Amino acid sequence: MTLTVHHLHISQSERIAGLCEELGIDYELKTYKRAPLLAPPDYKALHPQETAPVIQDGDLTLAESGACTEYICHIHAQGQLFLPPRHPAYADFLYWWHWSNGTFMPTMMKSMSLRSLKLSGDSSHMIMTNSRFKRAFTALNDRLHNNEWLAGSSRWQISWLCSCSLPYGIGFPTVWMSTRMWPSIFSVLGGQRGISEGDEKV
After folding, report:
1. What torsion do the CA atoms of 173, 174, 179, 180 make, to the nearest 10 degrees?
2. Which PANTHER family does the UniProt record give (predicted)?
3. What is the C-alpha separation between 202 and 197, in angstroms, rounded?
4. How many domains does the chain divide into?
5. N or C: which end of the chain has fewer CB within 10 A?
6. Among the residues of 24-99, which ranges form H helices?
7. Per-residue pLDDT reduced to its tens digit, 121-156
C-alpha cells in the first residue's frame, strides 16, 4: 500500500510532506489549491473535518497533523523521531510535543486572524493575543538558545514539528516578520533538510 499525503497549499499539511522526506519513506503527494481562501470541494470531501492535513493508507483516512505524524512515524518508520518513556528527556518531549499544537500553533493562528481584521493595537483582544504570542515565541527561543533540539540530544519529532509551524507563517507576513525578534529560532531553521525537500514538492 502507498501512503498518500493530500496537501492543501499554505496549510499544516506542509509538515506532513516534510516529515515523509525526513524519514525517507515512499509516499504519493496530491496537491490542492485554495478556492480562493478555503479548501476546494474535492479536498473537503476527503474527511468530515474538512481540514488539512489528510493522509490515506489503504482503507484508512486520517486527519489532524499530530495524529498523522504519530501514525506515519510508528507505522512506516518504526517509531523514529519519538522518545520512549524510559528516555531521560521523555517528560520534556511530552511537554513540547503537546505544546506545539496545543499552544504554539493556536497562538499563531489567533494572531494572524486578529491582525487580518486590523484591530486597534490597544484593543483588549490584541493586547491579550500579543502577550500570548510574545510568551510563546520567547519560550521557544529561550529553549533553543542553549539546546540544539527541544528534547533529547538529536532530531526528535517535536523539534521538527515546531519548526514546520514557523515556515507556515511565511504566507502571513504580519506574523512572520515579528519572529525576527527571536534569533535562536531563526538559527535552528537554517538546517531543516526535510522541510526544504518537502517544499520543493509542495
Report:
1. 70
2. GLUTATHIONE S-TRANSFERASE 1, GLUTATHIONE S-TRANSFERASE-RELATED
3. 9
4. 2
5. N
6. 41-44, 65-71, 90-99
7. 788 888 888 888 888 888 888 888 888 778 766 665
Considering just the CA atoms, what is the radius of gyration of the chain in Å?
17
Tell me: the pLDDT tens digits for 21-58? 989 999 999 999 998 888 999 999 999 999 999 999 99
CA–CA separation, 109 vs 15, rounded Å?
A: 16
Q: Please give the Cα distance from 116 to 1 (Å, whole number).
A: 42
Q: Identify the DSSP state of 7.
A: E
Q: Which residues contact 139 (CB under 8 A, 6 or more apart)?
A: none
Same domain, 11 and 70: yes
Tell me the backbone φ, ψ of residue 4, rounded to 5 degrees: -115, 125
- Residue 54 has, within 13 A of its CA and on its CB side, a CA count of 21
Read off the pTM. 0.78
Using the 8-state DSSP alphabet, how is residue 171 labeled? Answer: G
